[in-house]
Inverse folding.
């Protein structure tokens, strides 16, 4: 009997772990919108500036002297977003070397998005090896805080690269997450003529990006399109299959559903399968701008995505880091470009869409 | 009649729980009980149901298989790649099943022959299998799965019943027969109750254990292929955390994690119950944060109900 109760208890513990999100390690400190002291930093509410403004304010990037080693730590390369960010760091390194600078950027990641402790070990190792500056994308709002404290003691500048927020970093570089949802809302409101039922598939609700994207979407509709009714809002854990299941249910429950906004592209691609199967004409909008989403937009599956251009984000992060090292006064938050991609601009070059200009060096 | 009641008393408990749950959601939101929504519940149970049936065989032996999510991912990307390169859908399914069996049997080998504890062995292999899925694809999804395969695994047959549902029913039936009407099934229960005694009575415990894990792999592979068909894309990240859903379904269905006790019938309805709950919460528009709590409470309640049932039974036996 005892054994059975024990077994039952084990089940309960495991399943509770499951239902509270088995990857609850991902974001650690903040849950449910309640903020702890460390996580109180919200870049969306800071007075950030865009990279163009920053350049015109500060001028050229200060010259790099001697041999410089920059360390970048991403979340997990399983995810296309982080692979593209890594590529962006590589592009920036080449540009620096083309300038004749002796700069290397080492890009590593944690072992999966649940490996908070491992990511901290990587950062500490970089501090011990005396990297000149760090560009960090933490798994949770809290897991790299001790590493950043050590870096500060060692006098190493720290740039926090979207997403995951580090309260004690010097600079945050990333897109305005709330604007992300606003862009999607604006586009959907326009397509629907300001009227109709829409639904939202959220990622894990504990994630900052998920909360802000959803909030941006809701606030925009509230303020600008009162006749658009958000009839449903549910979590699908960033999982394609779970998002499809949700959409399947909604499409039957709300026969007049006109649009579904998803917190990322992977879920949007699942929703597209449900929409196609139903034969209905429902707009599907995602976030991230992954390659598969672009293909889906081209072939008439997804209708739009919000791309935050990680390839360029990495280069901006690198640039900001060099400015910081060169002693320039850099604001706390730098916004990186993001844009809505739909069938009208899906084949346009990213440089054109965001008006990208190459940085100038001293 | 009395015999039937006795034989299925445990299983009837979960069916009553399921009916109660559905009645409650039906009262809150009448749309919940429409045929299309009920069909949705069954349809969306398929993946977790297949995993749960497989894992029930393993849990009955006193083991556990944490690799199911990762095994699914390997099958999804490997079969996805083969399909895209032109392999015939039927050949792909057979190969997928074989693949699942080999991956499962490998777990069984580690446990039976190398004497690793099931939890540890499969926890390690969970990581290995996931890594292989990422390595094979470089992290990229496998796109454009042929329509012929998708129709075969998830197209409507028999009116509006998807073939995936038929697959779940067939696998459940096979599992049921294996457990209740074959020597193999009897050995699994016996191993779960007392492995040493089973071994001493001349049963080839190692072989039966490896077979149990292998069959769990087969069910898992089928779940993976259904997912591949449903989504039309094979992601190496697919199925993360699904092992816990499968274990939950088995536990809710009355399978004991200490082994020796459980049934496919219970697991099947356990999986349906969890999905009915999930869809009920969605249809009623329950806030996401509350959904976590509701799901957890239902699981605890279901398992506790099972414990109480056992106690009542013991008490009655004693009184006799």
């Amino acid at each position: 009997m005892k054994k059975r109760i024990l077994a039952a208890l084990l089940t309960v513990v495991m399943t509770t772990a499951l239902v509270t999100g088995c990857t609850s390690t991902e974001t650690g400190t903040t849950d449910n919108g309640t903020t702890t002291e460390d996580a109180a930093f919200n870049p969306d509410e800071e007075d950030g500036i865009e990279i163009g403004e920053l350049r015109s304010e500060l001028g050229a990037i200060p010259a790099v002297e001697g041999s410089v080693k920059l360390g970048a730590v991403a979340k997990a390369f399983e995810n296309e977003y982080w692979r593209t960010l890594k590529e962006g760091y590589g592009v920036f390194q080449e540009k620096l070397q083309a300038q004749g600078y002796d700069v290397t950027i080492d890009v590593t990641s944690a072992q999966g998005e649940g490996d908070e402790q491992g990511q901290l070990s990587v950062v500490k190792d970089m501090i011990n090896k005396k990297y000149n500056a760090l560009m960090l994308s933490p798994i949770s709002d809290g897991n790299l805080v001790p590493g950043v404290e050590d870096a500060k003691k060692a006098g190493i500048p720290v740039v926090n690269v979207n997403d995951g927020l580090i309260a004690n970093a010097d600079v945050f570089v990333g897109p305005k997450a709330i604007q992300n949802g606003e862009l999607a809302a604006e586009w959907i409101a326009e397509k629907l003529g300001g009227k109709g039922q829409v639904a939202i598939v959220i990622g894990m609700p504990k994630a900052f990006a998920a909360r802000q994207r959803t909030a941006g979407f809701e606030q925009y509709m509230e303020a600008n399109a009162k006749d658009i009714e958000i009839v449903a809002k549910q979590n699908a854990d960033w999982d394609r299959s779970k998002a499809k299941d949700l959409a399947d249910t909604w499409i039957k429950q709300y026969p007049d559903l006109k649009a579904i906004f998803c917190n990322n592209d992977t879920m949007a691609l699942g929703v597209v399968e449900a929409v196609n199967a139903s034969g209905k004409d429902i707009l599907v909008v995602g976030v991230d701008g992954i390659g598969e989403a672009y293909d889906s937009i081209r072939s008439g599956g997804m209708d739009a995505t919000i791309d935050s251009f990680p390839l360029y984000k990495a280069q901006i992060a690198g640039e900001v880091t060099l400015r910081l090292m060169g002693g320039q006064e850099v604001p706390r938050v730098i916004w990186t470009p993001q844009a809505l991609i739909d069938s009208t601009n899906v084949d346009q070059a990213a440089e054109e869409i965001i008006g990208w200009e190459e940085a100038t060096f001293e | 009649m009395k015999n039937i009641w006795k034989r299925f008393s445990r299983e009837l408990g979960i069916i009553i729980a399921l009916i109660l749950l559905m009645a409650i959601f039906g009262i809150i939101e009448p749309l919940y009980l429409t045929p299309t929504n009920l069909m949705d519940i069954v349809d969306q149970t398929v993946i977790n149901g297949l995993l749960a049936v497989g894992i029930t065989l393993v849990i009955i032996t006193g083991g556990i298989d944490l690799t199911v999510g990762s095994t699914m991912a390997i099958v999804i990307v490997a079969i996805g790649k083969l399909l895209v390169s032109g392999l015939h859908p039927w050949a792909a399914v057979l190969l997928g099943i074989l693949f699942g069996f080999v991956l499962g049997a490998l777990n069984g080998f580690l446990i039976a022959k190398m004497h690793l504890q099931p939890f540890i062995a499969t926890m390690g292999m969970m990581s290995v299998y996931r890594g292989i899925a990422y390595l094979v694809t470089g992290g990229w999804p496998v796109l454009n799965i042929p329509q012929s395969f998708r129709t075969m695994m998830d197209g409507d047959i028999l009116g509006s019943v998807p073939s995936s549902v038929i697959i779940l029913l067939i696998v459940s039936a096979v599992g049921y027969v294996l457990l209740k009407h074959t020597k193999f099934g009897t050995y699994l229960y016996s191993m779960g109750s007392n492995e040493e005694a089973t071994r001493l009575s001349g049963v080839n415990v190692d072989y039966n254990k490896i077979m149990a894990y292998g069959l769990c792999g087969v069910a898992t592979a089928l779940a993976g292929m259904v997912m591949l068909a449903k989504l039309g894309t094979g992601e190496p990240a697919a199925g993360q955390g699904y092992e816990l859903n499968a274990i939950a379904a088995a536990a809710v269905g009355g399978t004991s994690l200490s082994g020796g006790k459980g049934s496919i019938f219970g697991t099947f309805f356990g999986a349906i119950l969890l999905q009915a709950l999930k869809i009920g919460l969605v249809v009623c528009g329950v806030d996401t944060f509350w959904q976590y709590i509701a799901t957890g409470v239902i699981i605890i309640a279901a398992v506790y109900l099972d414990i109480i049932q056992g106690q009542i039974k013991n008490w009655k036996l004693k009184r006799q």
Remarks:
- The mean pLDDT of chain B is 92.
